[in-house]
Amino acid sequence: MSDRSTHWDHVYATKGEAEVSWYQDSPATSLAMIRAAGSDRDTAIIDVGGGASRLVDALLQDGYRDVAVLDLSANALEAAKKRIGQAASTVDWIVADATTWRPTKTYDVWHDRAAFHFLTDPRDRAAYVQRLRSAVKPGGHVIIATFAPDGPEKCSGLPVQRHDSASLAAELGPEFELIEARSETHHTPWNSTQAFQFSRFRRQK
Question: Which residues form the Methyltransferase domain (predicted)?
Answer without folding.
Answer: 45-140
